[in-house]
Amino acid sequence: MTQPTAPPGPVKPLVITMLGTSLSGKTTYLLTMYGTLSLGVGRQSLVADPNQDYELGENWDRLSREGRLPPPTADEPHEYLFTFTHDLAPVAELDWTDFRGGAMDARVPDDDDSADTAQLIARLSRSDSIYLVLDGEHLAASPADDSLPATMLTRRMTSLVRHAIRRRQAAGQAPPSLVALITKADLLLQGMWEDAQIWRTMDATTQRVRTLLPVLSEAGVRALICPVSVGHLGDHPGGQVNPANINPLWPEKPVQFSVVAHLDAERDRRERERAAFGTEAGKLTVELARTRWLERRRRRALQTARQQALARQRSAEQASQACRRWADLLRPSLRHTPAYFGGEPGMGVEHG
Amino acid sequence: MRVVVVGHRGSGKTALVAQALDGVRALAGDRARMSPVDRWRLHRTTARLAAGRPIGATRTPRVASLALTAGDQASAGPGLSVTVHDHPGRAVGAGPTGLARRLETDLAQADGIFMVISQEDLMSARSRRLSRCRSLVVPVRRALLAARAGPAGPGGIQSVVIVVTRAGRRPAVGELAMLATPFDGLETSASAVIAGATVALDDDPAPPHAALPLLWCLDRWVSQAGGAVTAGWQATTSAWFRAAWDAAEDTGRYAWLPYRERRVP
Amino acid sequence: MASWAPLLYARTLHDDTWWRAAPHDRTQDPWLAGQVRIVVAGGHDLDRHSRFLLAHDGESWLFGVACLSERLSSTMNQTGGRPTYCFVGWVSEPQADAAAIPPWKVLTTRWVPWAAGVYDRWLAPDWALSASDRAGLPHLTPYAPLAGSWPADAGQDDAGTGTGRDQLTPVSLLRHGTDAWPMSDAARLWAAAAASAERITAVFGVVRAQPQRLRGITHAAVLELARRQLVPGPAEPAGQQAKAGDGPEPRSRRGPGIAQLIASRLRGPRPR
């Protein structure tokens, strides 16, 4: 397949925000994801500027070579900007911020410590993809426990996401894509060797997650439930693990999903634009036909406006096709991962 | 043509550069010209290699220039200029230092890139192996992206060669491919647009195939140069490359070429 | 005699709210918060070396230490299997005299019991509380003369703490870089910083002279350095795209400002 051109026109960065309780694995996932994708997975990679690459790379090295887990995240959010590439072509810029877990849990209204909470809530409404981080350790320990929603703050997550969806819809924007990121997935499958047992466990976990986070099944929402793991780390007293056990599982899948969902949403937006400009051009054609030839100035103005509408329609169509081609190029990498659209399996798009 | 050599400290970059230039000069004969300073540096390095003595660490970026003249062949047209930029190992993996910034600037303007890594690194524990490879892949990938984003037209990075040094026993093709697995991501993503090769060099002070990476890059560059270089040079560089390739029959090298030309020799 | 109040920046077993104790007039102080975050740096490298801070905003002084909590407490030092870290410090009222600040040798030999006292005093009541019980944070700490909290000879010049003749590189000349000293000269840097009238952020115990790790630091004592040098600030890559913000979309790339364009025209093209 020939490589499509990058979507023309300015495309805003894909804003990604992670929600999850303290020590659920958000920062560890970010390091693992970057450490893996910066080396490259298949034809895709992430590129960061030298400063951020140094910071993330050093922290990833400390984890992968020394077995040192990252320290708990402080109250200053860490901001990163990545370029997601396919075959050395930039596909999307990713604007990623890592918040501490407590930032989503400011229950005290006048909590002076909630500056990053306000920042997180404002950012959620601008987020194109939200990662709902679920600690696999809790899911493994008590999969059917009624205390899980309180432990993992899934009701709070659901509330925040629904609020963000409503705000985006009020602004005429598509809802963000959602990734239910099950960290420490190795703990879910510990001691299992038979395929059937593994599939049963993963199926049951998927259903449990959909129950804990009903927002994943809402109309118009593209969602992915993705288990990830850094490796069989076991207990880690003093934040130290055996580096020989570092063996990442699927750290790239959530990012690939977010990019594809973003392209799908962008394609839909461009399709609506194309239709709108097409309608406008049609109306201008009718009006032009009604305008007498003696009204030269008016005819010229109408012709100019119609040409502009047609040009914008063509531009929107090109952008839509480019988004479709890019998304179709990337979509095979999501095969075998449970993705949903409006609660139904699949990404909700026919392959072109 | 500008070739930039990148690798960790002690990976054998300076030795590779000296051996490669020596090999090209041997093939080109009196058509190869170097400045007295470059010739002296080259001689000093190759003499130390022949005597089995260590070469000191490169402290600052060095550039060796080789001028290839047309000789008696009128059809070959004007000469070619080859510069090889040898960067210190400290420029890699140490963050955005001044040396690293110089390396990145050079990489973005390169026509060919040598990624030099020792076999010892490729056979080390998984985490170390991936870390060492990642710190080479990241600046090279950044340079490839920057080059593609630059103005269209002739130029830009055309070749990337992974050179595995200190290969104590010449690995077979399959072994070499397996050793270079950490570079699969770069190879897979880049091979749609640029040519690449992976070559193993042993500790022989004058390995017959040391010039292969440089000749490969030169041949690629000439073939991409279009009207800027005459057909005479294209025939010449291809002949040199073929001669070096044939002389190094069992080197364990393998090549990854642009998508449509993919083959293993 | 100027008064000083203790600060504690640390998380608990169940809650990652970090500001635990501060004086009443500093709970919303962005300068104070910024200085603490610079020296803490997300806990990075604190397992290799603790970091000391001496900062001045032109009116008040701030000094303290960022370290792993296990240095200060054998019980309140990890959560979820991860070691926790903290900052313990002292901030002065405006117009305070730096003479009250302990000299380097006193600080480095006696900081553990001093900091442990503050850590225990303000964290122990909260350590096992759940996140929903954190109302009323941060605890308000009183101002008091510093000497009451330090050994009697604190503030007196001590042999090896520097003669005061060392000069810091003026901040205006640093251009967002860092005046980096070797760690062996930390005492001299500490004395010079305490004698400075400028707005400075001096951090002691940074492991590497890395621009990214020295961001926001005007003067530093660095473990890996053998001699003093100016470390340039982290360079912003050319053409870095602006982040998505609260403004209208889409965002365009920012080009060089007028000052940069004029400067580049005057400098001429860079040689290849």
Distance between the termini of chain A: 13 Å
How helical, in percent, are the residues of chain B? 40-55%
Supply the CATH class of chain B.
Alpha Beta
What is Rg of chain A? 23 Å
CATH first level of the largest domain in chain A: which class? Alpha Beta
CATH topological fold name of chain B: Rossmann fold
Q: What is the general shape of chain B?
A: globular
The biggest sheet of chain B amounts to: 8 strands, mixed
Largest sheet of chain A: 9 strands, mixed
Number of strands of chain B: 8
CATH topology of the largest domain in chain A: Rossmann fold
Regarding quaternary structure, what we see is: heterotrimer
Largest interface: A-C, 43 and 46 residues
Structural overview:
Chain A contains 10 helices and 11 strands. With 352 residues, chain A is of the alpha/beta class. Chain A folds into 2 domains: 14-264, Rossmann fold; 270-334. In chain A, helix 1 packs across helix 2, helix 3 (115-126) packs across helix 6 and helix 9 (253-290) packs antiparallel against helix 10 (296-330). Chain B has a single domain, classed as P-loop containing nucleotide triphosphate hydrolases (Rossmann fold, 3-Layer(aba) Sandwich), CATH 3.40.50. The longest helix of chain B is centred in the middle third of the chain and has 24 residues, at 126-149. The two termini of chain B are 25 Å apart. Helices cover 20% and strands 23% of the residues of chain C. Chain C has one domain (3-231). In chain C, strand 5 (78-79) and strand 6 (82-83) form a beta hairpin. Chains in contact: A-B, A-C, B-C. Chain A binds chain B through residues 3, 35, 38-45, 47, 50-51, 53-54, 57-58, 60-61, 64-65, 83, 85-90, 243-244, 246, and chain B through 93, 95-96, 100-101, 104, 125-128, 130-131, 133-135, 137-139, 141-142, 144-145, 148-149, 182, 184-186, 188-190, 192-193.
